[in-house]
């Protein structure tokens, strides 16, 4: 290589070195300015963000306790729910994030913002529930855009699942989201904003047992609130399980028989007061309340003429009609105004004062005893018995039998019913009691009001020999290991105000009402099971003399209510039933067949009592 060539090579290498040095210098200058920009110009902002990359405590929701029927069939379960939440501290510009989220999942902006507003100012670091139980499509969209939605995350939490839609809805109840006012009361230590609590039925009354205890997780999160690392976990403790006295199969049968009717059915074990059936129709689907019921569905329930949100078994009050003749007979016998041999003549009416009081049988029953009067439901016999006893004595026996006051069932909003007295009328209407009004009271009309549950408790007591029990719904409460932590024993609340001799006479009349040749409920006889019961037809609208319409011509809302109360088998009853069908017209043809079907199903199964060991 010549000297010239060597010089050229040295110059080229020198140029390459200078070029490389310039490039390196340029890169370092860029890095310097970038660092200066980050440290000086935006240093404060990034220092704040770095503080957010911190350790936080993340609460873990517990599973609510399960609910089983008397035969250990699961009624209420839990399922996973995808709940959309936001941590305000991580969300940046909150309104912009919420607006973007609303567009992604097709939920109105204001609806999402309302959840934040309700949470108040103290929820900057705590997750706020924006929407419970989102769909899988919404879940997929949020996950796909999670980097565009800072502070937004999804928690998979257990939520309620009512396995049999509408079944025992009024008994089991439903859940609703807790509000800020309730949170401040500190009555719910294991409940956070966005959680649900029992709002109705068993779910509400046993909230402290069902709720469970929250767990927690110590996590490290980045500046957008996304979890980087799980540091420590404390598992939640599930709520306690409830074992009810309810018989699912029998409940479903009762509801099916009520399907096209409005009314209630209550079945009780006379030996201990266990509720076997508590059906009210129309009903509602408790699952509609999961995650918050829509305004449209809520209004549909509120304005439904059938009033599905009312538990007709304990909250609806009706005249007891002829089922009240049990009370009148009991009072007249105990007060010695009549005895087993006393007869009264029924020509089909009673001329009393300046008015004619008619019997349901316009042809009359002739000479009739108390047992026959119960069997054939003779109004004239009980008109005369009622006059002898008087309204205040009738009221004394009625209240002694549990009418006119709450039965003590654990469900809230139970009604008292009404048993009138002369003093009550004076106070209520400022008018004296008229003796003619006692005739209406004696046959269960007039001011008398009872609930189907009260009549079930009464007929159960008649069947078991006179013991009044407090209705029992929850038999045992168990922890997650199956250990019984609480057992509710049968509770006697009193006894019927009647001797054994009086009860034997009344029971004989009730037996003949079904098994007798002229019994008002003779059509529901079963071959192998003797039923004792009483029909009733509660007047809703009185047809005047000059009104040519018959009862069948009246519009539905003016038709009579149908009653039937009974127990079976007649000698050693294992079930007592009260059936009320609104505007069903006749107890014998509408209400009694429902009771018959339930008795047949319950007693003709291999195990009569069907009580499994704990």
Question: Mean pLDDT, as a whole number?
Answer: 87
Number of domains: 2
Question: Which secondary-structure class do the elements indicate?
Answer: alpha+beta
CATH topology annotation of the largest domain? Beta-lactamase
Q: In angstroms, what is the radius of gyration?
A: 36 Å
The number of helical segments is 20
Tell me the name of the CATH class of the largest domain. Alpha Beta
CATH architectural category of the largest domain: 3-Layer(aba) Sandwich
CATH superfamily (homologous) name of the largest domain: DD-peptidase/beta-lactamase superfamily
Low-confidence stretches: 545-549, 606-614
Estimate the global geometry from the Cα principal axes: elongated
List the helices and strands and how they pair.
Layout: H1 3-41, H2 43-52, E1 55-60, E2 67-68, E3 74-86, H3 94-105, H4 109-119, E4 128-131, H5 136-144, E5 152-162, H6 169-172, E6 175-177, H7 180-184, E7 196-198, H8 201-205, H9 207-210, E8 215-221, E9 227-234, E10 241-244, H10 248-257, E11 263-268, E12 275-281, H11 295-302, H12 325-334, E13 343-346, E14 349-352, E15 355-358, E16 366-369, H13 370-376, H14 379-389, H15 391-400, H16 422-429, H17 435-442, H18 452-464, E17 467-469, E18 474-478, E19 484-487, E20 492-495, H19 500-515, E21 532-538, E22 561-568, E23 575-581, H20 587-603
Parallel strand pairs: 2-10
Antiparallel strand pairs: 1-8, 2-3, 3-4, 3-5, 6-7, 8-9, 10-18, 11-12, 11-23, 13-16, 14-15, 17-20, 18-19, 21-22, 22-23
């Amino acid at each position: 290589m010549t000297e010239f060539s060597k010089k050229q090579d040295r110059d080229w290498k020198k140029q390459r070195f200078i070029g490389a040095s310039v490039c390196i210098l340029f890169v370092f200058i860029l890095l310097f300015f970038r660092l200066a920009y980050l440290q000086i110009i935006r240093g404060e902002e990034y220092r704040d963000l770095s503080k957010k990359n911190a350790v936080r405590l993340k609460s873990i929701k517990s599973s609510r306790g399960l609910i089983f029927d008397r035969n250990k069939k699961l009624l209420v379960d839990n399922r996973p729910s995808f709940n959309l939440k936001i941590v305000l501290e991580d969300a940046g510009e909150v309104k912009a994030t919420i607006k973007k989220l609303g567009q992604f999942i097709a939920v109105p902006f204001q609806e999402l913002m309302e959840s934040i507003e309700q949470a108040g100012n103290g929820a900057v670091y705590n997750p706020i529930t924006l929407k419970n139980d989102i769909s899988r499509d919404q879940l997929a969209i949020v996950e796909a855009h999670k980097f565009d939605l800072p502070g937004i995350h999804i928690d998979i939490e257990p939520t309620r699942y009512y396995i049999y839609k509408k079944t025992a809805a009024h008994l089991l109840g439903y859940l609703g989201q807790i509000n800020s006012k309730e949170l401040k009361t500190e009555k719910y230590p294991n409940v956070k904003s966005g959680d649900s609590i029992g709002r109705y039925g068993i779910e509400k009354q046993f909230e402290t047992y069902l709720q469970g205890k929250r767990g927690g997780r110590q996590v490290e999160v980045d500046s957008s609130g996304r979890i980087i690392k799980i540091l420590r976990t404390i598992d939640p403790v599930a709520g306690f399980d409830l074992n009810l006295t309810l018989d699912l199969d029998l409940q479903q049968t009762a509801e099916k028989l009520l399907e096209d009717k409005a009314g209630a059915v209550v079945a009780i074990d006379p030996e201990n007061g266990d509720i076997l059936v508590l059906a009210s129709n129309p009903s509602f689907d408790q699952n509609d309340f999961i995650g918050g019921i829509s305004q449209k569905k809520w209004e549909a329930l509120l304005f439904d003429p059938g009033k599905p949100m009312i538990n007709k078994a304990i909250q609806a009050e009706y005249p007891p009609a002829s089922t009240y003749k049990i009370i009148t007979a009991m009072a007249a016998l105990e007060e010695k105004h009549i005895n087993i041999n006393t007869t009264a003549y029924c020509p089909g009416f009673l001329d009393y004062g300046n008015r004619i009081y008619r019997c349901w049988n316009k042809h009359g029953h002739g000479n009739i005893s108390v047992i026959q009067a119960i069997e054939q439901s003779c109004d004239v016999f009980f008109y005369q018995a009622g006059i002898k006893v008087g309204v205040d004595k009738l009221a004394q026996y009625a209240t002694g039998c549990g009418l006119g006051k709450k039965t003590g069932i654990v469900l809230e909003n139970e009604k008292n019913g009404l048993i009138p007295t002369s003093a009550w009328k004076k106070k209520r209407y400022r008018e004296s009691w008229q003796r003619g009004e006692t005739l209406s009271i004696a046959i269960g009309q007039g001011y008398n009001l009872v609930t189907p549950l009260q009549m079930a408790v009464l007929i159960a007591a008649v069947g078991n020999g006179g013991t009044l029990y407090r209705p029992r719904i929850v038999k045992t409460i168990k922890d997650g290991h199956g250990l019984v932590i609480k057992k509710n024993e049968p509770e006697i609340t009193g006894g019927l105000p009647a001797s054994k001799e009086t009860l034997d006479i009344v029971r004989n009349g009730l037996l003949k009402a079904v098994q007798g040749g002229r019994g008002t409920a003779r059509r529901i006889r079963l071959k192998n099971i003797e039923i004792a019961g009483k029909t009733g037809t509660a007047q809703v609208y009185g047809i005047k003399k000059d009104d040519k319409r018959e009862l069948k011509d009246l519009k539905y809302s003016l038709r009579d209510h149908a009653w039937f109360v009974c127990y079976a088998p007649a000698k050693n009853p294992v079930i007592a039933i009260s059936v009320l069908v609104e505007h069903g017209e006749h107890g014998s043809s509408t209400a009694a067949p429902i009771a018959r079907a339930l008795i047949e199903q319950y007693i003709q199964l291999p195990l009569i009592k069907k009580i499994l060991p704990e």
